[in-house]
Amino acid sequence: MITNMDHTKLSVRERIARRAEREIKDGFYVNLGIGIPTLVANYLAADKQVVLQSENGLLGIGPYPAEDELDPDLINAGKETITAAQGAAYFHSAESFGMIRGGHIDLAILGGMEVSGEGDLANWMIPGKMVKGMGGAMDLVHGAKRIVVVMDHVNKDSQPKILRACSLPLTGKRVVNRIITDRAVIDVTPDGLRLVEVASGYTVEAIKACTEAELLVAEDVVLDAF
Amino acid sequence: MKTIAASYAEAIADIQDGATLMVGGFGLVGIPENLITALVEKGVKDLTIISNNCGVDDFGLGLLLRNKQIRTIIASYVGENKEFERQALSGEITVKLIPQGTLAEKIRAGGAGIPAFYTPAGVGTPIAANRETRVFDGKEYLLEESLTADFSLILASKADRMGNLVYNKTAMNFNPIMAAAGRMTIAEAEEIVEAGTLSPGTIQTPGIYVQRLIAGRQTKRVEKRTVRA
Fold this sequence. Notes:
The complex is a heterodimer.
Chain A: H1 4-21, E1 29-32, H2 36-39, E2 51-54, E3 58-61, E4 84-90, H3 93-101, E5 107-111, E6 114-116, E7 121-122, H4 137-143, E8 147-150, E9 162-163, E10 178-180, E11 184-189, E12 192-198, H5 204-209, E13 215-222
Parallel strand pairs in A: 1-2, 1-5, 5-8, 6-9, 8-10, 12-13
Antiparallel strand pairs in A: 2-3, 3-4, 6-7, 10-11, 11-12
Chain B: E1 3-4, H1 8-11, E2 20-23, H2 33-42, E3 47-50, H3 62-66, E4 70-75, H4 82-89, E5 94-97, H5 100-111, E6 116-119, E7 133-136, E8 139-145, E9 149-160, E10 165-166, H6 175-181, E11 182-193, E12 212-215
Parallel strand pairs in B: 1-12, 2-3, 2-9, 3-4, 4-5, 9-11, 11-12
Antiparallel strand pairs in B: 6-8, 7-8, 9-10
Family (chain B): Belongs to the 3-oxoacid CoA-transferase subunit A family.
Keywords (chain B): Transferase
Protein name (chain B): CoA transferase subunit A
């Protein structure tokens, strides 16, 4: 049974994923993190040629397999069975992170628990809870040319996730370029966070009210942007 | 020509308590299933395991965990395993979590004779606390030492009698770099063919890194079956 709440939740994730798709330019090599970032692939415009990297050793992620083409040896970083796109390449894990750290990936879209006003990202552990590991996130935040974090604007208790300083242990310091939430698009600039887009149903003031970090408002801020 | 072990028990006969093992695989893909089962049957304990993950509760390295044979695990992500969580929280096992790219490079460096290197991953985070960093060209990097192992247990799709290996798709993952970083590398291959059968240009791990071979069928359990309609 799908409840109303599930519908709302789903549409929030969809809204974020659809907006994040617009970050991806024709010709880009892109790494998508686990969770909402993975959904972005579902909305990729057909006229863009994009190569998706999977850090377990694949350049060129294709769609999920049909039942009869499923290969247990072919998975993405989230361990889901996938296919390889036309022109894909396989490689080992050191090569994979060499291309990540070496600055060859144009864009990484990652999930986030908290982002600070200086672009610090926390997305790998909550003290007191079981630590499962950082996977490739700490490498990715330093390697990709551009880091976009996608997340809900506030947490389950309606508290801001965009903070003056992260309270959770960091994944990387001053690494985030842009934050896309269900409510807004915010850029990390040398002067601080700059609000550049406001989603339908919200106002600039409403975004400021649910953001702890100081927000500059871009002169050309787009309202009703997505 | 490399030694082809007659049984899995023979393939791992010289692995003793307290050994350091690298085990290939990402999730359940590319793990040497039968060599892991042989370790469970042999019952060697106090093992230090270097592997990206630690299997699931009832498959892969999770079997060694359940049997309490692991003393220390060095990995990048260990979710999806309740028994792991229990042993880690109770202090029965020591867990060292390392960024995946750093883990891969530590292993690559170990096999390539590089004792240490600098990487940006982890700078400014808890993993860099009280550790040596250095600034190059205005950016801070963390010193990381390489890893080697007493034994590397890896999975190939095909091996030839010279120990040359090829892998299937994303089952390659950590296997080639671990092959080079093990003092004794035992390769489980889905198929072993005569020397000369594999085209030299397609070899992914040259036989120099492999000391022992065994052929084995894989179950290839799927962790997350995702298909399109």
